[in-house]
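LOG
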Amino acid sequence: MQRFKFAVFLISDHFFGKKKLFKNRSNYYKELFETLPKNGLGKIMPIERRKNLSVKEFRDTYLKRGTPVVLEGAAKEWDCVKNWSLDYFDKLHGDDEIILFDALSKETPF
């Protein structure tokens, strides 16, 4: 359920911008922070890096199996990649609030 909630927040932020939907996420973050120690640190695994991967190969080899892969150069023609600069990020996210915390710490800001 946490992955689903996280995905919903991520997608809504992408399409509608932060603070338009789900303005108060403190309960979600509190629940997430409480369950992280119970579930452990997670699994560390190697991730392949691929260039020029066809849609079919990506779908069959990675997407259907739920296997992560880094697609090198896949976004090189995207406007956001071409335009990345400090000014670009300042215009897009200059007013965003970012919360940093140590996930292994017993104390949390949420």
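LOG (cont.) second protein
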Amino acid sequence: MTRTTIILPEAIKSMALSAARRRNMNFSEFVRAAIVETAGKGRAVSKESLIAKPLVYKGPAERDLGRNHDKYLYDEPAARKTRKRKVDA
């Protein structure tokens, strides 16, 4: 094992000490278990997540959509006067 120093706010350390006592663990064991539990979950994207779904629009789009998205969402259609970008098929 490697000795590591971490700096915790008093409130978090108190919470961790209390949780360790409730589980009959010492503070170090509790911290190691919490890290393994948290790091083991990773940042996997849920199948229900919007970014996990292949939602890529392939049709024509306004060239300045990223910069002026509010205009396209909330302005009247007649107020929009921009060129559409070409889309590769």
